[in-house]
Specification:
Length: 262
């Protein structure tokens, strides 16, 4: 299927790994010019080189922290008039006990997961509206819709971000700009690999056994974690011409771990 976005300019923030990287890959496959930001230069450049080699599209690495004003300025200097903005970031740490979360952790989570993405959306949405076309997709977390103690730092801030995104989506929809959110559950990302390998080592079991225990404990109906490339393809679909009548929506991608009729 042709998504109708060939030649569009796309910014993917936090795109050196995980679902962000998979999104950059999916957009590059659709012929977009992709500008990928991340803080770590080595991993970012390697990821962009692989995506460019596989797709033949222009993929530009931008070493910057999009949660800071300086980082946002550097990214927008590289791509001042994006047609597509995809935002993600490394998740805050899991929090087994809500009472142990300190003020510094809250401030950091709010800065990275809420204020930074809001500032970035505000910087590009008006331009999209003036040009008559735009797509914004925030990669958040299933915990934004289904709260859990271990995901309080991530879920609460991204729930607020989703609320803001939906409100703004109503204002710009008439100008051909859509704003949507994906809410992924557990996927095989670099963060998950590091965390679950550490947990497995501490227990003296294998990575696969640790994942299986988590799947059972959290009732993930599919019986496994998700593939980031599948999630990236869904993000790209939201960026497509075919999705022009979808806006202000939040899509859960969690393998059936949560229950909801709608």
């Amino acid at each position: 299927m042709d998504f109708g976005i060939r030649g569009r300019k796309a910014i993917v923030n936090g795109g050196s790994a995980g679902i962000g990287k998979s999104t950059a890959l999916a957009l590059a496959r659709e012929g977009c010019e992709v500008f990928v930001s991340a803080r770590g230069e080595e991993r970012l450049v390697a990821a962009c080189n692989v995506i460019a080699d596989v797709t033949g599209s222009m993929v530009v690495p931008v070493v910057a922290d999009h949660a800071t004003s300086e980082g946002r300025a550097a990214i927008l200097a590289a791509c001042p008039e994006p047609d597509i903005l995809v935002g993600t970031c490394a998740p805050p740490p899991m929090t087994p006990d809500y009472r142990e979360i300190d003020a510094a952790q809250w401030h950091e989570a709010i800065r990275i997961s809420l204020l930074g993405p809001i500032d970035f959306m505000n910087a590009v949405v008006d331009g999209m509206a003036q040009r008559g076309w735009g797509r914004v997709v925030n990669i958040a977390t299933v915990a934004a819709k289904y709260p859990g103690e271990i995901r309080i730092l991530s879920g609460s801030t991204r729930a607020a971000l989703t609320n803001y995104a939906v409100a703004v989506s109503k204002v710009v929809a008439k100008h051909g700009v859509t704003i949507n959110t994906v809410l992924p559950g557990m996927h095989y990302t670099a963060t998950v690999d590091e965390l679950f390998n550490a947990r497995a080592k501490a227990k003296g079991i294998t990575f696969e056994q640790e994942v299986a225990e988590f799947v059972e404990a959290w009732h993930i109906a599919s019986g496994t974690f998700g593939d980031p490339d599948d999630a990236g393809a869904i993000v790209a679909m939201f960026c497509s011409e075919a999705a022009k009548y979808i806006t202000g929506q939040s899509l859960v991608i969690d393998g059936g771990a949560t229950n909801s009729t709608f």
